[in-house]
From TrEMBL:
SMART domains hit by this protein: FCD, HTH_GNTR
Keyword terms, alphabetized: DNA-binding, Transcription, Transcription regulation
Region Disordered, residue ranges: 1-24
InterPro entries: GntR_C, TF_FadR/GntR_C, Tscrpt_reg_HTH_GntR, WH-like_DNA-bd_sf, WH_DNA-bd_sf
Organism: Kineococcus radiotolerans
Coiled-coil regions listed in the entry: none
Transcription regulation as UniProt keyword: yes
Designated name of the protein: DNA-binding FadR family transcriptional regulator
């Protein structure tokens, strides 16, 4: 972040609030704070350009720019100018984000649960198709992506390797319609559909280890052309997204007792 940007970021910071700029700026700010907290964008990752965020959020670029300025003031991101610049995530879930995350997720939890169920079902269909239609070249790519995931470090590297593996599975299905529908649904869950949710830092290692076990089972099913198993494993695996959202909401103290946490 430049000196001018840093000075602007320090000016007028108000801990624990979404900031000023009107209700639309506040709403976009809170959605971005929640996206970062729940692991859509992990520390070190680069947010999409303003124009892409604006399209994904259904907001104007000036609104997005103002929201990003609020995130910078909160210490969640820093902005670099120039050819290789952009907005980069600094920290995931400071205490000041908790109230916002609880308010945002509790207001949308029912819709998010339905969306996660639809995504899990569609991933099941995609992996069934991959088991039925994958070529030897597809399988080689899938198995290579699995090895990259197994060797990746925790956090951003693991999330990026996970994305590459799921993309290889989607490509192996050889169905452009399934691809488009899945991308649309995932774009509604994750701003810009960067990757699957990665959760809060305290549970990340356990989640990554579980995901590796499930990845291996899924790849084995696709390799063996066991379509029923591939569909079942994929559906259960992608349900991790809802579990992570539920855990985030529970962390804020806003998850109602007895709320189902899996589709």
């Amino acid at each position: 972040m430049t000196q001018t940007d840093a000075a602007r970021s320090r000016a007028g910071a108000t801990p624990g609030t979404a900031g000023t700029g009107g209700p639309r700026v506040a709403a976009v700010t809170e959605r971005l704070v929640t996206a970062i907290a729940t692991g859509q964008y992990l520390p070190g990752s680069r947010l999409p350009p303003e124009r892409d965020l604006a399209a994904a959020l259904g907001a104007g670029r000036m609104t997005v720019r103002a929201a990003l300025a609020h995130l910078a003031r909160r210490g969640l991101i820093e902005t670099h100018r120039g050819r290789h610049g952009g907005s980069f995530v600094l920290q995931q879930w400071p205490d000041s984000s908790t109230e916002i995350v609880g308010r945002t997720l509790s207001a949308t939890y029912a819709q998010l649960r339905d969306l996660c169920e639809a995504i899990a079902r569609l991933h099941g269909a995609v992996c069934r198709a991959a088991a039925e239609h994958r070529s030897p070249a597809d399988l080689e790519r899938i198995e290579a992506a699995l090895e990259v995931y197994a060797a990746a470090g925790s956090g951003l590297a693991s999330q990026q390797a996970d994305s590459a593996l799921h993309l290889a599975l989607i490509d192996a299905a050889h169905n452009d319609t399934l691809r488009r529908v899945l991308a649309d649904l995932e774009g509604q869950l994750s701003i810009g559909a960067p990757a699957h949710l990665w959760g809060a830092p305290e549970g990340m290692h356990a989640m990554e280890a579980r995901a590796l076990r499930e990845h291996r089972d899924l790849v084995a099913a696709v390799a063996g052309r066991r379509a029923d198993d591939a569909e079942r494993i994929a559906r259960a695996h992608v349900a991790i997204d809802l579990e992570l959202l539920s855990a985030a909401l529970a962390r804020t103290g806003a998850l109602p007792a007895g709320t189902p946490t899996a589709p």
